[in-house]
Design goal:
The structure is a single chain. This protein is an alpha+beta fold. It folds into four domains: 204 residues, 3-Layer(aba) Sandwich (Rossmann fold); 83 residues, Elongation Factor Tu (Ef-tu), domain 3; 111 residues, Elongation Factor Tu (Ef-tu), domain 3, CATH 2.40.30.10; 152 residues, P-loop containing nucleotide triphosphate hydrolases (Rossmann fold). The protein contains 14 helices and 30 strands. The strands form six sheets. Strands 7, 8, 9, 11, 12, 13, 15 and 16 form an eight-stranded antiparallel β-sheet that branches. Helix 10 crosses helix 14 and helix 12 crosses helix 13. The protein is elongated, with a radius of gyration of 30 Å.
């Protein structure tokens, strides 16, 4: 007797090539076990008769008109079912090649999968592709249903041939099915009742296989990970708390635990666990949507990831070796900008190198390709504009999965295999060490913001020589000072011949990195003091900016390019061309600072 788990729910994805019978199997399963709403079966039968269509069990869940007319599943339908053991959420994922993205979306929510193969038609391209995708998505509990056995006269030889061929394929992608089951969905053989026509088969039915799957337990025993969704403040209601909100991806944390936010490396201690419409708690577990309040009001933002200081931290990297699957009509190409979405983080990147491309159905490698075509799998190195926090797939799968966005559409997805070293890795580690040992004032940044009526920021004014950068900076400084702002202009020469006086041959290109780093460290002190710092420098590049933003918070850096032509690869926040006086640019920069929330309008 199977023990019923009243509150247990298991998500199962049904996948496979189009027309191999996934929806029919589910419809038959629901009908045979009395899981349909009263009158549903009769309603669909009447619909088919009215439209002169043969009745199909698949119509019980294929609710879209287009699906009934074309006899294919377009979107991932979800149905609910209850066995003697537990409740199920069954996801019927589309099998047509044009809807692979919908299949991935559906299967990504599943804890186990049933993959369907037509006994007569045999293993098809999407049969292999879907098996490969299940492996990438980290689904390890699966069974293979060899359907339409009635069309091959219930032949044991045909069944065993498919089992052997497909089993060898799945082994190559790291999957081992719990069972292969011969079924006939149309006749109901081996769905919920054992088939008399296949006495040679002594394995479980589909229903028994479902009940044999284990419920995936929340990863509460793994390291704590909280991707930051947002930071909320309710000061207009007299509430001074800064609530850091998100859904716990893994692990657990409690009041009193020290947490570190990555990639910034900022630290604080949990003082309360908040929730919507319920009292504060002492502990939070994996899967829960919560808010944290901290003992220090540190500045963190959406996209960072919180981890406990006493546990293994996530990787922080700008270069990632990944395994991905491409769905875009246009190939994924090296050098083109894309966006990666991982957890709540969103970051621009380019493909640095295509290590190998693998046809997802044939599993054939091509190491000479420089782009990834539609429906191909590939191992690539991605180079991100800024570092993000991530885990490797073999350590914490949930925080290793990502999607790739091109324009406004999701074009692919994958998992992180490895974080790779980049030129700024040592500098980031140094910044984390600095922040960990930073001796804080008793004054908070919020108190300084309220007193100064401004948010601290760095204004980097750059461009070619002889374009009036310094005069513009001085004019801006004077204008802001007259407005009552706390502002300071620092020219590069003031640093080069002062703080950087120990650097010989300071004009050499190899010393530029250290000049930028020291300037950024000085800027960090000004920012901590709540000031607006104006800096001028000649022809800053995007690499210079990335270095600068490694040392200080990127959101507090504003870049202005002065001159007719941009002679580097810098992507400035503001471009100033053709000005007769320094007053005009000062007005433009002030307006930009107001629009970006650094200067509060009277």
């Amino acid at each position: 007797m199977i023990e019923t788990q009243e509150n247990e729910k298991l998500s199962i994805a049904f996948v496979g090539h189009v027309d191999h019978g996934k929806s029919t199997i589910i419809g038959r399963l629901l009908a045979d076990t009395g899981a349909l709403p009263m009158g549903k079966l009769e309603q669909i039968q009447a619909y088919c008769e009215l439209n002169s269509m043969p009745f199909e069990y698949a119509f019980l869940i294929d609710a879209l008109k287009d699906e009934r007319r074309q006899n294919i599943t377009i979107d991932s339908a979800r149905v609910f079912f209850k066995s003697a053991k537990r409740h199920y959420i069954i996801i019927d994922a589309p099998g047509h090649i044009e809807f692979v993205k919908n299949m991935v979306t559906g299967a990504a929510r599943a804890e186990a999968a049933l993959l369907v193969i037509d006994a007569q038609e045999g293993i098809r391209e999407n049969s292999r592709r879907h098996g490969n995708l299940l492996s990438m998505l980290g689904i390890r509990q699966m069974a293979v249903l060899v359907n339409k056995m009635d069309l091959v006269d219930f032949a044991q030889e045909r069944f065993e041939s498919i089992c052997k061929e497909y089993g060898e394929f799945l082994a190559k992608v790291g999957l081992e099915p719990v069972s292969f089951i011969p079924v006939s969905a149309r006749l109901g053989d081996n769905i919920s009742q054992r088939s008399e026509k296949m006495a040679w088969y002594d394995g479980p039915t589909v229903l028994e296989t479902l009940d044999g799957f284990e419920k995936e337990q929340p990863p509460s025993d793994r390291p704590f990970r909280l991707p930051i969704q947002d930071v909320y403040r309710f000061t207009s209601f007299g509430d001074s708390r800064r609530i850091i909100a998100g859904t716990v991806a893994s692990g657990r944390a409690k009041v009193g635990d020290e947490v570190v936010f990555y990639p910034s490396g900022k630290r604080s201690t949990i003082t309360a666990v908040e929730g919507f419409n319920h009292a504060s708690r002492l502990e939070v577990l994996s899967g829960e949507a919560i808010g944290l309040t901290l003992d220090q009001q540190i500045y963190v933002r959406r996209g960072e990831m919180a981890a406990r200081a006493d546990e293994t931290p996530p990787c922080v990297a700008k270069r990632l070796r990944v395994s991905l699957f491409w769905l875009g009509k246009e190939p994924m190409s090296m050098g083109k900008p894309y966006t990666i979405k991982l957890g709540t983080a969103r970051m621009r990147f380019q493909v640095e190198q295509v290590l190998r491309v693998m046809d997802a159905s044939r599993l054939e490698d091509e190491s000479s390709k420089v782009q990834v075509s539609r429906y191909e799998m590939a191992e690539c190195i991605l180079n991100l504009d800024q570092p993000i926090a991530v885990d490797r797939a073999d350590f914490l799968p949930g925080t290793s999965r990502f999607v790739v966005v091109d324009g406004y559409e999701i074009r692919g997805g994958g998992i992180v295999l490895e974080d790779l070293v980049d030129s700024e890795a040592d500098l980031r580690e140094g910044v984390r060490t600095r922040d960990a040992h930073w001796i804080s004032s008793n004054l908070t940044i919020e108190e300084r913001v309220e007193r100064y009526n401004q948010r601290p920021c760095v204004v980097l004014i750059t461009g070619q020589k002889e374009v009036g950068r310094k005069n513009m900076a001085r004019t801006l400084e004077a204008r802001l000072f007259q407005d009552g702002k706390y502002v300071y202009y620092l020219g590069m020469g003031s640093v080069v011949y002062g703080v950087d006086g120990d650097i010989h041959n300071h004009k050499e290109i190899e010393n530029r990195h250290e000049h930028i780093r020291r300037m950024a460290e000085i800027a960090n002190i000004f920012l901590d003091a709540g000031l607006i710092l104006i800096i001028t420098a000649v022809e800053l590049t995007q690499a210079d900016l990335r270095l600068f933003e490694t040392v200080v918070e990127p959101e507090r850096v504003q870049t202005i390019w002065v001159g007719e032509d941009i002679s580097t690869d810098l992507r400035p926040d503001l471009r100033i061309e053709g000005h007769e006086t320094a007053e005009e640019p000062a007005v433009l920069i002030k307006r930009m600072l107001q629009d970006h929330g650094f200067l509060f309008k009277p």
